[in-house]
Amino acid sequence: MDSETRAGREGTATIFLVEDDPGVAMTLTDVLESEGYGVVHAANGAAAKSMVDQAQPDLIILDLMLPDTDGLVLCADLKSRIHAPIIICSATNRKRDAVLGFKLGADDFVSKPFHVDELLTRVQAALRRSTSGPRRSAEPAMSAPQPAIPGDGAMGGGDGQPRSYQVGNLAVDHARRNVKLGGVTVDLTPTEYRLVVALASRPEEVLSRQDLSHIVWGYQDASIGRSIDVHLHRLRTKLKAANPDVTPPQIVSVRGFGYKITREEGELADSAA
User: Fold this and answer.
1) Cut 0.85: pTM above it
2) 62: nearest Cα among 9, 77, 53, 129
3) Gyration radius of the chain's alpha carbons
4) Which of the residues bear the PTM 4-aspartylphosphate (predicted)?
5) How would you write 145-182 as a 3-class SS string?
6) In a shared domain, residues 165 and 52
7) Nearest to 269 by CA among 255, 214, 183, 56
8) Mind listing the pLDDT tens digit for each residue in 117-173?
């Protein structure tokens, strides 16, 4: 695929984010997903090494200051295994780290703190320069072996077609990737959409954080459990604000177990599970 064609399809690329700060990771994931990218997140070096071969990313964003691994060593390791551009994104104040990063295969270096627009521009430029095409679609994190979302292939209807789900006033049209509350479209990020599909496809069934992380990101990692909490809080807020005339179904936390969506109407529960 030539660079011009690649540039036209960069929104379908898979980005492998190696970042140990949960807040930064969630922010970057939301920003990248809102731009149409698929994001797979690793919270440390060990996770990055174990996940990268399966993720087969089109681009890697790598933090050098990881709790368990020298980021420069990891950069060289990832580059030897995956033919994808690497953007180092780090708060290190050692100028030689940037130089060494380039020598070890990095394609760009962004210093923290940074503006998200700058990072997005660097991502787009790196993808344009890359000669390899995107390996997967806009929802790459969902392609790893995992519990399938009903309506996606094996768990769909008898004809294999995607299905729709209705929970109270909430309607999910999985064929069109559309969510409506009382007929009003709810604007969701890809992560929030996958969460609402996972819950709405199994109303009244409790799903653990691990189940949800497996469905949403394609892997289970205890370190991202709180990320699920944050995304669900945002999902609740969006559902409540989408249509003031309609009360959305509750997304309820079941302490010690996980979350469920219930057909009963009422105020959205927001306690920790």
Assistant:
1) no
2) 77
3) 19
4) 63
5) CCCCCCCCHHHCCCCCCCCEEEECCEEEECCCCEEEEC
6) no
7) 255
8) 888 988 988 888 875 444 443 333 333 333 445 444 333 344 444 578 999 999 999
Classify residue 273 by its DSSP letter: -
Q: 166 or 100: which carries more pLDDT confidence?
A: 166
Provide the mean pLDDT of the chain.
78
Instruction: Looking at the structure, tell me whether residues 132 and 151 fall in a common domain.
Output: no
Which structural domain range is residue 175 located in? 145-265
Tokens found for residue 7: 């540039």
Non-local CB neighbours of 152 within 8 Å, separated by 6+ positions: 142, 162, 174
Using DSSP, state whether 265 is helix, strand or coil: strand
Query: How many domains are there within the chain?
Result: 2
CB atoms within 10 A of CB 141: 25
Q: Where are the alpha helices (DSSP H) in 12-154?
A: 22-34, 45-55, 71-81, 95-103, 116-129
The answer to whether residue 272 sits within a structural domain is no
The residue behind tokens 């090494």 is 49
State whether 32 and 110 are in the same domain.
yes
75: Cβ contacts below 8 Å, ≥ 6 apart: 62, 64, 86, 88, 101, 104, 105, 106
113 domain-assigned: yes
Tokens of 123: 């991502």
The residue type found at 259 is: Y
CB–CB of 247/266 below 8 Å?
Answer: yes
